[in-house]
Structures are given as C-alpha cells and as structure tokens.
Amino acid sequence: MTKTALAALALLALAGCSRQEPQVLGTLEWDRITLPAPVAEKIVAIDVKEGQRVAAGARLLQLEATRTRSQLEAAQAQARQSGEALAELRAGPRAEQIAQARASLSAAQAQATEARAYYARLRPLGERKLVAVADVDRARAAAGNADGQVRAAQAALDELLHGTRMERVAQGEAAAAAAQAQAAVQSATLDKLDVAAPRAGRVDSLPYKLGDQAPVGAPLAILLVGDAPHARVYVPERLRADVKSGQAARVFVDGRDGSLAGHVRMVRSEPVFTPYYALSGDDAARLSYLAEIVLDAPVDLPAGIPVRVEFVR
C-alpha cells in the first residue's frame, strides 16, 4: 500500500472520529418570575435597582395603601357586625321579650273576656227586640276579633319560646362567613402592597418608576431566579425524534471556551411554526420545536447570550 493510500485512510479515520453531534442554536435564559400589580395604586417606594441580587422575602417596592387599608377596616367592621348578628340569633329571644309577649297575651285575653261577656249580655236583649240588631252584630264581631287577638298573642309567645329557627341561624352563619372571607381578601391585598421577592434572584426589570400608577395585572418587577440558567433552543424536525427529556447535552456559549454540561428539561410537543399548507414531505422540514436545556452546574452568565447545543446520544 502506497504512502498516499495510507494518508487517505488516516484522514478518513480522523474524519470519522471527529464527527460532530447535531447542533441547534438558541440563547441562554433564566427562569423568570413576574410580579403583577394587585391593585391600581401609586408606587410610593422602590427599594431595589435593576441588576441587584435580592433574597427571598426582600421588599422590592411599595404601593400606596390608604384606600386598601380603609377597605380592610370596612370589611372587618362588617365581619364584626355579622358575627354579632349571628350571636344574637344563636342566643334566642331575651327574657324581657318573652315577658312582654306574656303580658300582651294576658291583655288580649282580658279584652276577649270582656268582649264575650258584653256580647252575652247583649244577645238576649236583641232577641227581645230591646236593642238594635246592628248593636248585637257589632258585639259579636268584637268578641270574635278579641278571640283572634288572643290567638295572635299566643302564637307570638310560642314563637319566642321555641327560639330561633335553624334556617335563620344557618343564614346568619353564611353571612358571617362571607364577611370574614371578604375581610381576609382585603387583608391579603393589603399585604401584597409591599411587593416582595418570592424567591432569591436578580432584579431583571422594573418597568414602572416612582410615582407611576400601574394598572391591575401589569408587571411591577421581573426577577431572574434559579441556581443555573438554561439554554432555550429550537430543535428542527429532523432531530426531534432523537431528543428526549433528561437527555445529556453540551452547551457552547459564544465567547467562552469549552462547553457546559446540561440536560434536556423539556421539549414541546407542538411545533413553534406550523406551515398552513402541509405537514408532510419537504414542508415538514420547516417545523421546529422549542426545547430547554438546564445547565448542571451554577454559572453566572447574563441572559440573552447566543448558544449552540449538542445532544449526546
């Protein structure tokens, strides 16, 4: 075998050994946490700067609390009122109310006795035509009305003696629970006016400035969190079948020598871009799938740096 042939074989062997794994491109990112505005209130204090590292629970900024605190006090007062109303229902009628009902019953009974006696005296006179028939009829009606008043007074007394209905107590309990829940909501909202970091991280953005009034749900602060960043890349359709969650990968950062070890955290099942006309043949090559590769070791690198990723097979 000639030297030329040997050299060619050596080159082929080196080419086979240096075969690169498939690569994909993307950027280096951190997990982001967005802290929305709980209410539309003015920013009265900002305690951090963009790029600053913060611990979990550290206050980032503060919103005006005057109106929310007043709403909380009103809700707490309503809760106390509902609680007292429920206690009154559970306690039932006072002894004084029962005594008053007994007295009303006694008065009605006395009036009924008098009315019946008057009718009893007047009826024989009417039969003898000594008094007008109309007078006898009025006496009979008055006696019947007095008997009705007795029955009404007796029923009112019985109602007090039987106590509060279970349904009314249940309604009072529901009203008290609703008032307490509303007070709890206002209390939670008041606590959220001191916007704090839910996790340790770095302040990436403060979209609003001191004195601004952000609408409800608008991002007041954006944090970058996590021990290590991740590479967000787009896997082409021809590589999708070979990329799985948990698979090892090597991440190459532009401007940094060597590679960083990582593993695939997730691969989206739906493509990022889907052609409207077909999903087969040559058109399928247009598909790409979003994937995230988490670095295995913590590194302090900024977000947005271009990276390329090789998947280890």
Automatic annotation (TrEMBL):
YbhG-like alpha-helical hairpin domain sequence ranges: 70-190
Transmembrane segments: none
Superkingdom of this protein's organism: Bacteria
Subcellular location: Cell envelope
GO terms under cellular component: cell envelope
A Pfam family this chain is assigned to: HH_YBHG
Keywords: Coiled coil
InterPro entries tied to this protein: HH_YbhG-like, UPF0194_transport
Annotated PROSITE patterns: PROKAR_LIPOPROTEIN (PS51257)
Keyword Coiled coil: yes
Protein name according to UniProt: HlyD family efflux transporter periplasmic adaptor subunit
Protein species of origin: Thermomonas brevis
Organism phylogeny: Bacteria, Pseudomonadati, Pseudomonadota, Gammaproteobacteria, Lysobacterales
